[in-house]
Structure formats: structure tokens, C-alpha cells
Amino acid sequence: MTIExxxxxxxxxxxxxxxxxxxxxxxxGTWDAKWSHREDTLRQHLAEVIEIKTDEGGYHLAKIxxxxxxxxxxxxxxxxMIFGKYSMAGAAKVIGVHLPESYGxxxxxxxxxxxxxxxxxxxxLIMAIFKPALGLSAADxxxxxxxxxxxxxxxxxxxxxxxxxxxxxTLKRLEACRQVLEAxxxxxGRTVLYAVNVTGKADKLIEKARLLVKEGANxxxxxxxxxxxxxxxALAADPDINVPIFAHPAFAGAMCASPDTGLSYSVILxxxxxxxxxxxxxxxxxxxxxxxxxxxxxxxxxSLRSRNVFPVPSAGIHPGIVPKAIADYGDDVILNAGTxxxxxxxNPGAGVKAFFEALERVKTGQSFTLDTVPxxxxxxxLQKWGN
Amino acid sequence: MTIExxxxxxxxxxxxxxxxxxxxxxxxGTWDAKWSHREDTLRQHLAEVIEIKTDEGGYHLAKIxxxxxxxxxxxxxxxxMIFGKYSMAGAAKVIGVHLPESYGxxxxxxxxxxxxxxxxxxxxLIMAIFKPALGLSAADxxxxxxxxxxxxxxxxxxxxxxxxxxxxxTLKRLEACRQVLEAxxxxxGRTVLYAVNVTGKADKLIEKARLLVKEGANxxxxxxxxxxxxxxxALAADPDINVPIFAHPAFAGAMCASPDTGLSYSVILxxxxxxxxxxxxxxxxxxxxxxxxxxxxxxxxxSLRSRNVFPVPSAGIHPGIVPKAIADYGDDVILNAGTxxxxxxxNPGAGVKAFFEALERVKTGQSFTLDTVPxxxxxxxLQKWGN
Lengths: 387, 387
Fold this sequence. Notes:
homodimer, alpha/beta, Alpha-Beta Plaits, TIM Barrel, 8-stranded parallel β-sheet, 12 strands, 41% helix, 2,3-diketo-5-methylthiopentyl-1-phosphate enolase activity (chains A, B), amino-acid biosynthesis (chains A, B), metal-binding (chains A, B), Ribulose-bisphosphate carboxylase (chains A, B), lyase (chains A, B)
């Protein structure tokens, strides 16, 4: 089995020279006569330049095939090989990574598993984010959760910048929110997932994740790119972490936003996440409030779904975009709204209701123009955020 | 205590608007009247725009002060706060991070500790890299190590892409090399450090690091940026990891090479590493074979030294650059050569001897022009690589 990687170089770069540097310099390197008795083994580790072409804009594309024996079936060693030292060599961007099916991990739950936990099979899932992001007490979180869970919300998550802070320690938030989730379950039979943000130094983070699950957490949130792919992979492989893991894309722009360096968003948030064992991945929706290329977004969605990982378009999501989102995504998607639920003119519960009204109107083919929408949560949302 | 971060925006970006988005959006966010009873707490978490100015090139610089209570005294939560979601917002680069002295960790050994282990106080240290990078057996590593250690080498490390592979498993390499190191110690009293590359999923990596140390490893190498800062911080905080940790910069270019996005090399390889508890940091020397800005390199060196972390300029280092390196760095530096030792025309041992001849000539003020250098290892190196 082999790994193929697509590198893109600006017009002024010699792609033949650079492809050769990558194929040799990122694998065995060169050797001289004194290693001739190891020739066969050394050759097995060399990468191979498969194809070099130039696109209409003058950009060069090189496809390089790496031996799978060079890496450890994980993402960190893969990144080191394909773009470790070479990332510092000048203008080159990794725009495609093709991995064997067996490479890395698959989600423990993913789309089918999360649907089963929630017992919801026939519509997009609705997800909210606790806001304000910092400064609320654990009890405040429970109050918000009750409002949105009563209104029918499927999933809620911590804001990605809310760590284990003195003002609302992670375990206290879980303890306060778990009581709400248990009450909802008893009263309605519904499960609502709360993805608790898990943070800390790698060893403590993993211990904390186990403790959270033991204490009743039914989902986790991880800032995969600031804590490290190796941390995600540890959690995903851990049999004690038997709850869905949600990946937040924080820091993705640092490695993906540049046109000529780094890696494409679709590589990091799509391909890599899909082989990392995570269950759902947040990423910016192209019609949201972060600039994002629709083609890249489509690739992320498709990479994730191809391995049963739930796509979670985020940022600037509000009830008015539901028709567009369903047209773009179909049903196998989690629509994730922060202020689009929490800042509803009425209250967060009404924010959730507005999403469900919107889903119902799409399902029954009804218009979203203001004059046709009856008074209520959706109309208030449309008046505030448009469509 | 506060954290100050310098963001740089291209001329066409409104820095006032963006600075405000960062100060609010990367901290508490906005809130409405229903949280007025939490006003005081929420305000404590907000960041503050301290200064906005425009440089001669039209680039805007914004300095933003973040409350330390928002983060967990570690690098991963810091990255999430200062450049998490915002990294995806468009063109902005983090060019400076100013942390309280007490933030993060200090090295267990660093410059003073590594010198004490080696009992070498009055000259730069010489470091080599096992080459070819992949495809050698554990026994091959021991053969190379004997050659360079006998010649007086201070430190050797695995290539950063050499993981725990079937052809030469990490523990087997250690086992084979430890015998050489022990023999040198017995025969000469000298300690030679071997920084073993530690890899794997975060939990297994930490376990493996502990095992390696228990089995006699006297130094570790970590690809901090592909495995995650949180993994470095776990190793650095672990009392069982009582050996120096060397950080490799693999993948730094993915987050630092772009002019208008990501973070400066000096932030990632300098400031962040200096607060991460690592003992020595490799980075590209500006006169090496990777393109690198001398000013950024100077900042890295100074940030590291300010917290007793050993700077390790690398890539393209060979005996001929020793005069330049000493002029640039003085003595408190580790000169790290891969092919510049391993590919010496004679043999790797001669590569090491060439470095020591070079150090001696600089110390005694002798010329490096070919006709003045006597026959021997240095002359052969100069003939091959110049100066």
C-alpha cells in the first residue's frame, strides 16, 4: 500500500527539482558506496515522483508516492514525512493526500452512531454553542442548557476557548449540565449530547477525558490542531472513551489560509480528520462569516462522509440559511449555531425552535419570504438575520 | 499578569475593525441584557486593544492584551485563544507574543544542564544526525555511533522522519547504541548524548518516552509541531523524563512560511518553545540550505537563550561555516550537521574531527583559506563544501 501526495508550486519554481528533493530528502536521503550492501532496503524507503504537470495558471503540480513502511499508520508521522522539514523549503502547498482505506482510524460512532444515540434518522441535527464563551458559571451553563434542550436541541458544545478555568471548571460544568440532561431523558426519553471541551497537557488531557466520561460526559470536544493530531488519535483509540468526539478547527487557518504554503483546508479538516478516528468535524461554512472556498468545503464534506464522519458546517449559521444548507448538504449534516441560537431576539430556546420551524418549512416546501412566515421564533430570526 | 500579542495586517485590511473582532471574538464574545448580572465577570475575560500603528510599508500592527485567566498556563490553550478561530478569518499574521516570566515551563536542563552532563563548558557543542535517514538496521546505527563518538562528538540524534519502524525499532536502536555509549564512558569518561526520536499516539508516545528513559536513553527528540505542543508539555512536566528533550522544527513552515498568515518563525520556534519546557531547539540557520530570515533567526536564538534553552541552528551546517557560526552565535550554541558530518569524504568520524579542527582554528585565530589549512579532515571538508 502506498500514500500519494499532491504538491503545488508557484510558476517560478522548478517542480522537477523540488519533487526530487521531496522524494529523496523526506525519505531515506542519499547514500554513498559504503552503504551499497544496504541498497535494497534503502531503496524500499525512497518515494517516487509519479507525475508532474502545469495548470492553466502556470502553477505546477507534482504527485509523489511514499512507501507506507516509512510511517506508523498515524497522522503525526505522516505529516512529518510529507511536509516536515520540507515545509521550510520555500513556496509549496500540499493540496491533496491519498491514503489507503486501512490507514489510521475510523470513528467509533460517526454519522450512524451519533444518529443511533440520538434516535434521529431523518433530518439534519441541530447543535448550539454556549455563549458568552467565557465568564459564565457552571450553573449558568445549566440554565442555558435547560432552555435549549427543552426546545428540542440535539447537541450542545462548549466554546472552543473555554478551557478548565477557575470561573467554571470543566468537571463542575459537566456536573451541572448532566443533571439537566438526565431530567430531559427521564421526562421525554430524548438524549441530548453535550460535547465537553477537553484541555490540558497531553497526559492530563487524556486522563481528564477518561474521568469526564466516567462522570457521565456523553460527548467530547477537542481542539485537534492546537493540542495535536496525536492527542486525537490517542482518544480515538482509547476503549474507555466510548462517546463521540467532536473536532474543532481552531488554528486551521495558521496552516491552511496561505495560497502558496501550508496545506489545503480540505487536507487538514477533510482527509486527515477522516483518518483520525474523530466522529464529527466542525469547519467554516462557505456562506458563513469566515471566508471559505465552496470547493474546499465540498471536499471536506465528501472526505468526512466517505468514512462515516459527520460534517458540521459552522460560523454564521442561523435559521435563515437552513434552505441553502439542506440544498448543499442534504440531511447528513449537523448545523452548528453559536449566536444564531443564543442571540435569538426572544431567547436561546426560541433560537432552537426557529431552526426546527425552518426544517419543517423546507420539508414541506414552504417559502421563507418574511410575509409568508407566520409570527413566531423563525420569523423573529429572519427579521434579525435575514435569509 | 497579562499576555500581549502583536498581529500584522496587510495594507487593505482595517486594523481597528479586526483588532476589535479579535479582542472580543477570541475571548468572552458579546452578551446582552440578560447577562447584566454577570457584567463584571464577563468584562474580566475581555481582551483589550492596546495600540494600532502602520509601518512604512503600509502594514498595520495591532497589539492586543489578553487576560491570563482565559488560559491554562500552557501553549495549546494559548494558541487557541490568540489564533484559534481567528486564524480562519483572512489575512493576519501573529508576529510577536509577550508572556509573563512565569508562563509555561522552563527546561529541566537547558544550556547549563546539558553542559553539565557533557562536562563541556568552553566551546560550542557538536551534534550529528544518523544518515541515511531510513533503512539502516539498529546495528548500523551502532556502527555509525562508534565512529563519531570515538572522534569526540557531543550529541547525535535520529533523523526526524525515523519513527518506530520495523526495520529498526526505537528500542532496538537504543539498545544497540547504548552499548556504544557505555563503552565510550568506561574508556574515556566522556558522556555522549543520543536523542532518540519518540513517536506514536500521544498516550503511547509518553509511555514510550518513559520506557526509553528507563532503558537508558539519555536524551529524547520530539517533532513538537506534528505531535502537538501539549505532548511536549506533558514530557517536560513529567518527573520520570529526567533527560534533555530536543525539539525538531518539522512542519514549522506550514504555519510560519506565509508572509500574511500564520505566525512568525520566531513566535513558534522561539517564544513558544522557550515556554514549553524543552531543553534545545533545532531551527534553520540563515546561511544553511533552507531560506531563512537572519532577523527571525536572531529572535529565535535570543528567545531561547533568555530562558536557558540551547539554540541548535541546523540545515546546511558543515565545518567550513564554523567561523561564521561562532561570530553569529558565540559559544552557547549546538552546531548540528547531518550530511556535513556523515558525508565527509573520508568517513563520519573525519566529519567530526573536521569540526573540532575548525573550532581550534577559530580559537587560535587561524585562517580558513585552503592553502593555509594543513592536510587532514578539515581540509577535505573545505574541499568538498567550501567555507
